[in-house]
Amino acid sequence: MPRPPRRAWHRHVGGWVRDDTGSTIDEEDFVPDVLDNVRELLPDIASRAARIDETRRVPDEIVAGLTATGVFRMLQPRRHGGHETDPVRYYEVIRAISEVCGSTGWVTSVLGVHPWHLALFDDRAQRDVWGEDPDVLVCSAYAPVGQLTPVDGGYELSGTWMFSSGCEYASWALLGAVVVGSEGRPVDFMTVLVPRADYAIDDVWNVLGMRGTRSNRIVVDRVFVPEHRVVRNYETANLRGPGQKVNSGPLYRLPFGAMFATTVAVPVVGVVAGCYEQYLASMRERVRLSLGGGRFADDPFAQVTVGRASSEIDAAVLQLNHNMQQMWEHAVAGREIPMMLRLRARRDQVRATERAVEAMDMLFRTAGASSLYLGNIIERAWRDAHAGSVHVANESERALALYGRGAFGLPVEDNLI
After folding, report:
1. What angle do CA 135, 139, 143 make, to 5 degrees?
2. Under a CB-based contact definition with an 8 Å cutoff, are residues 164 and 173 in contact?
């Protein structure tokens, strides 16, 4: 498929037109170089990172600019205006954004993975969202805290979800819920699609790190959800879904556990990778005023820190890419993705987050007292990395135990595999 040079193409009705020649490419055949487009925005995003942290919000114009790059369409079905991109390329873009602003990278990553999940829903749900505008964004809160009561034609939904990153930029929400049986007990776990008109957003996100993600509370009070906007989590975990009947490409044969969990690991790795580059730039010519003076870069302890931290970052990136690429190759070839590969992907995803945080702590400890000042790039990166690491999908013990069970030949059941 054609891949255009930087900023040479612009969307028009039904396709894309090249600025210099006037030639056109149909929408379904066009694959933009999103990473090159995004790189043009990075200086502006970087210049706003401190303000994003202070105001607890990514500006609308940044979200609009990112939308124009095509990043939110990378995992979206072609039949709905998306690009069905190799996920390794998608996460490369997310890492680049996160290197200059953790909050912007996190919001982009989470909002950008939802088109992939929506593609597993009934096609009527997909048309509900993208029928008139393929740039419509979807947020999520997957914790199964909502209650679904069966009614004629669908379900009645109520619930309160505490954390939904980027919800203010979205027109729809994917929410976790349980079906309540006649005895008041859960009988099934679901993900439901709800339009913005059916839920309220409470501004409660005033936290230590990832402050600009607007991960606010969503409240739903007895709204009707038609049956075609509901999918069973069991079906999704087993790589089945009504959307696969119309979206048959390899992207939609990948595990939810790998896709979503990687989505909340890559921004953390990106934050630390970006901080590492800033650390080198700021510390290279620094002269110590204590401990005998001398250049910081000549200190062997500082050199060891750089060696260890860079190795942890590289290991995180390499393992994430390696596992995702292997799963992608299985999906492209139409082969079943082995369970041990799925478990390995989760193992290495949580280890990637751990490695990133360990590297961040090394850099923070050796950066000196100046890194303690609020607004300092290293200080902000430390807060963002630690905040991102506490997401439930980044909890290491559960994922590592699941891998251990699989390695011992014991049965493994988990929706995040």
Report:
1. 160
2. yes
Q: What is the distance between the alpha carbons of residues 372 and 114, in angstroms, rounded to a whole number?
A: 36
Residue 180 lies inside a defined structural domain of this protein: yes
Cα separation, 114 vs 294, in Å, equals 51
- List all residues 6 or more positions away from 45 whose beta carbon is below 8 Å from its beta carbon: 62, 97, 100, 101, 104
Name the strand (E) or helix (H) holding 148: strand 138-151
CATH number of the domain residue 272 falls in: 1.20.140.10
Query: What pLDDT shows up at residue 1?
Result: 35
Alpha-carbon gap, residue 59 to 54, rounded angstroms: 12
How far is Cα 278 from Cα 272, in angstroms, rounded to an integer?
Answer: 10
Gap between the Cα atoms of 194 and 13, Å rounded? 29
136 backbone dihedrals φ, ψ, rounded to 5°: -60, 135
Residues 28 and 157 in one domain: no
Q: What is the pLDDT of residue 21?
A: 61
Instruction: Say what the pLDDT of residue 8 is.
Output: 45
Within its chain, how far is the Cα of 222 from the centroid?
A: 29
> Would the pTM of this model clear 0.85, i.e. be above it?
yes
* Tokens matching residue 37: 């487009």
b/e per residue 199-218 (b: at least 16 CB within 10 A): bebeeebeeebbbbbbbbbb
What one-character-per-residue DSSP string does 229-291 give? GEEEHHHHHTT--GGGGT--SGGGGS-HHHHHHHHHHHHHHHHHHHHHHHHHHHHTT-B-SST
3 within domain boundaries: no
Contact 278, 322 (CB under 8 A): no
Contact 204, 218 (CB under 8 A): no
DSSP state of 228: G
The encoded tokens of residue 223 equal 């709204």
Task: Print the domain residue range for 352.
Answer: 254-407
Number of domains in the chain: 3
Segment-wise mean pLDDT, segments of 10 residues, the chain, 417 residues:
42 53 55 89 98 97 98 98 96 98 98 98 98 97 96 97 97 96 84 98 96 98 98 94 95 97 98 96 77 77 95 98 98 97 98 98 86 82 98 95 97 88
Alpha-carbon torsion (105, 209, 264, 158), positive or negative: negative
